[in-house]
Every structure is written in structure tokens, then in C-alpha cells.
Amino acid sequence: MEFKFTEENLKRIELAREKYPTALAAVMDTVYIAQEQNGYISNEVMEEIANVLGIDKVYVLSVVTFYTMYHTKPMGKYHVQVCTNVSCMLRGAYDIWDQVKGKLGIENMQVTPDGKFSLEEVECMGACGYAPMVAVNEDYFENLTKDKVEEILDSLK
Amino acid sequence: MEKIVLPEIENLNQIDVYIAHDGFQSAKKAFAQTPDALIDQVKKSGLRGRGGAAFSAGLKWSFMPKSTDKPKYLCINGDESEPGSFKDRQIFEYNPFQLIEGVIITCYAIGAKVAYLYVRGEYHKWIKLMQNAIDTAYEKGFLGEKMKETFGTQFSCDLFIHKGAGAYICGEESSLMNSIEGYRGYPRVKPPFPAQKGLWGCPTTINNVETITNVPPIISKGWEWFSKIGAPKHPGTILFGISGHVNKPGVYELPSGVLLTDLIYNYAGGVPGNKKIKCVIPGGSSMPPLRGDQLEGVKMDAESLKEVGSAIGTGGVMVMDEDTNLLKVLLRITKFYHHESCGQCTPCREGTSWMEKTLHRILDGHGTSNDLDLLVNVANNIEGNTICALGDAAAWPVKFMITRFRDEFEKYVNPNISLPVPNKVHSMRQTAVPLEDISK
Predict the structure, then answer these.
(1) Which CATH number fits domain B237-321: 3.10.20.600, 3.40.50.720, 3.30.110.30, 3.60.15.10?
(2) With a CB-CB cutoff of 8 Å, which residues 92-121 of chain A face chain B?
(3) Which residues face B118 on adjacent strands?
(4) Which of residues 378-407 of B touch A (CB under 8 A)?
(5) What is the pTM of this model?
(6) Which residue, A28, B113, B186, B291, has fewest beta-carbon neighbours within 10 Å?
């Protein structure tokens, strides 16, 4: 499947490129932009990133496979991330984790058949004082109870 | 009580409000002095890094070469991935302009023209808030070319945000630089230190967000004022993030050297259900844990915590009550370091995985006393044998949790053991705030 950046995104990449003295440094920003446009980073996407930045594809690959926030396969429309690290765990994060798993019927890093939800057990998100927490795509939901989690998941259409 | 980093002023994150409260006056004052004079003041103020190592900020700045034909860089570390640490986001949200002013002053002091603020990728919301603040600062002439006009100086600097993508290791300074350069976040071998060869091989200084935010008040109110706040050897206020089993978790800005028990029982409202405390990790998950019966008299500053066998780290205090299963806590911490190990150094890559497997075995009921010794042994073989401090960070919790709570862990491998009277190993404090006053 061929992948091309939209005009608007090419402009955003140009802006990212201007922040740094080298093109390579803009690779992380560019991967983010690509992921936003395509949903995940496939081989074709990596190739196009390399083309646009004028860098070797292997650099794109090494970054995409190192950082956990880049996905190499499609994720759900709502990517549900449950923090289970110590501070959250002390306040019942594993109960929330089991609840979300049960409700969505999927395991870690899986996607529901309708493509609506994907689930990830994440490491500390920096919300320790407001534990337990769940992040859906880019939004944090903090100070959760089981009822609130239920409410949040139900509200995602 | 005076708040330096997060003053209680409404809408301080609006530039007009910030300016009305003497915002950017300290930068003005700084530009009237030589860079060396600024470095000297920060050195004398005793400001120490808030990112974990508590290294003297002024001293760090003074390592930057004075004469070089290469560009110099400033990196501001807002990766904030240490479990238990959630303070930098408060600065992004509530006091972004003081951070920006700190960046300007620091850039001027070390001679950098470009600064990169590294923020963890998960902080989408705070990156947007911070980017808005930076855009506003550019617009109003506090960053970029327009600075020259605003401040009537020849100096100008740029500030860019670099968004991380979910790697704990990028909080390590050399790994952070690799990440900015567009590589995998692999730590670099030191020396050369960043001040000699940092970003793109150029002299670079890396400071924590909170450290930089402390700079403007030091310049405007003077180093003497700052050096008198809190513990003499680690002066100033610290943003303590307290989490876990407390009634009022959150970030509290308090003078360094505050009593740990004060922090837990007076500020954070004590332990839910008035339970006793089994264990406290005083500075983020990688710092050695303290036993509940060791908490009395412990002060929260770098030197005092060193004396009791722990460290200030990022000031992220995690409190665990008497019913906590420390084996599960330790397993979760070890799982984290196993997941976040970058894989460069064998002791860390293999050791973290070993420790996790061994802890799993104990949790599954197949552990023996020897496993506890094995865990300490593996931890000892990681510590000091890796390029970066993640190895130590992974080793310390295992080593100190098991040695300090050996009685508990013996019980996990042999459930027939009966522990001594629990009251003797737990902090006996009662919550100072009446429970009904604590809003849920």
C-alpha cells in the first residue's frame, strides 16, 4: 500500500526539520506525524519518511522499533492504556486492568475485532498522585474507580 | 511558606499575569551582568539538580568551555518517567513562563543559542500547554530574535520542544541527547561528558525542568536568600510528589529537609484507615526503600537521605501501608526496569530479566531462601557494571528491598515462618489531620 504525506503534513515536517541542524533529528517528530495520518507505521510509511527526510531507511526502522509509542501494526480507534506501575498498583490498578480486559475481551496489545479498541498495559505515565489512571489515546483519566472506568469505556463510541 | 517553583498565584500560566508578578525582570537583571557572574551566583546559591543526582547546577554550568568555535546547547530534561515522579507536569501546567525565563538565563550564562526541552511523549496535554506558552513568549518578544529588542541586548536564543516516545531511558542525559539527534535512546559512554561532547558533538548542558525553574528567583532575589531556605547543603524548595497509600496524594512544594513523617502525616494527610506504614520509597522507584520503623527523624534532602541509606532522587515519595505485599511491589518495579532496559549492556539486559524471573518463581510459590541470596547477588553484579545509571536503578530496589525486609521476604519463600510483632516494624504514627476533614 503506497503512502504519501498530505500537503499539510509535509509543511509540518518542514517545521520540525527547521528545529534541528540535521534532518535525522526530525525523524521522531516525522514518525509521529506519519502515525497520526496512517494510524500505524508500516514498511511503506518508513520508506516515505526516509525519502522525505533524505535519510537512510534503517534509521527510521531503528527509531520505530525502539520507542514504545510507535506502533507497527494497526491499533484500535481508541487505544486504552492502563498504568499498572507501583503507585497505581498500590491503589488498585490491577483491578482496573482486569476490569478493562474483561470488558473489552482482549489481552495486552490486542485489538477488538471491530477495530474500535486496543489495549496496552503501560509503564508509569506520570500520574502517580492521581492513581489509578487510564489514558485513552492522548487523554488522561485520573483518580479512577471501577464505576468511572465503566462510564469512560461506555462513553467511547 | 514561600513557594519558589509553584507560587500560589492564580492564572500564573497567562503571560500577562506572569509579567505583572515581575516576570522576566530577572532575565533583564541577568543580561546586565556577565555570564560568569551568573554562574557564580547559581554556584553560591547551592542549587542542586532536581532530576535525581542532586549535582550542583552552577558547577555543571561552569564545565562548559569558555572558548569554542562550536555552537553550545542547553537541554532541559522533562522526560519525567521515574515511577513516583509527577512534578514537572505541574510546572508545564501552572508556571511555564518561569521555566522559559530560566531557560533564557541559563542559555545566556552558558552561551547557548538553542535549547531543547525534552518532554515525554505521553504528556500530549502538557506538550500542548508548553508549546502554547513558548509560542506566546516568541510573540511577545521573550524568545528568538525579538529578544534583542525587548531586553536591549545582543543575545538571543531559541527554545524547541522535543517530544519523546515512551522510553524511560531517555531521562538519562546521554540517551536523551541521542534521542534528540534522532537515534535510539542508547546511553553513551562517559567520558567525554556532555559539556565537552554533547549534542552533535558540541558542548551541552542538561538540567532538569525543576532545576531551571529555580533559576529566575535566584537571580532576582539573590543567592544568599536562596541558600538560606531549607537544608543548608541542599537548599531551596523541592517539589515532593507523594503517592501510594496516603489520604491526600499530590505534589507539595516544601523546603528541603522537611521531615518525611511531616510530609506523610501532615501534608499528605496520613495513611488511609490509619494503617501503619511498612515501607516508603523516598525518591522515585529506583531509590533504596526505607522501613516503616526507620522513618522518624528522616529529613528530605540529599545529605540526610544519604545518611539513612537512601537518596532524594526526583522527590517522588511512595508510601506503602502494612498490608502491602512487598514481593509484588518488587516484582512490579523489576518488571519495569526489565522492560525499560535499553539492552546495550549485558549485566542490565540479562540481569533485569533474571531478577524478574526469579521473583516470579517466588510469587508462584516455588521460591527458596537461596533465591533471595541469588537476587541480591545478581543485583550486585549489575550495579556499577553498566554504561548508565539504569543498571544501578534496577539493582538498588532489589538489593535493598530484600536486605532491609529480609524477614518479610523469608516469609514469602516460607509461609510457615511467623514474623515478629508487626507493630515493631511499622511506623506507629497516627494521622494528624482528623479523618473526616480529608475529602475523598
Answers:
(1) 3.10.20.600
(2) none
(3) B77, B162
(4) none
(5) 0.95
(6) B113
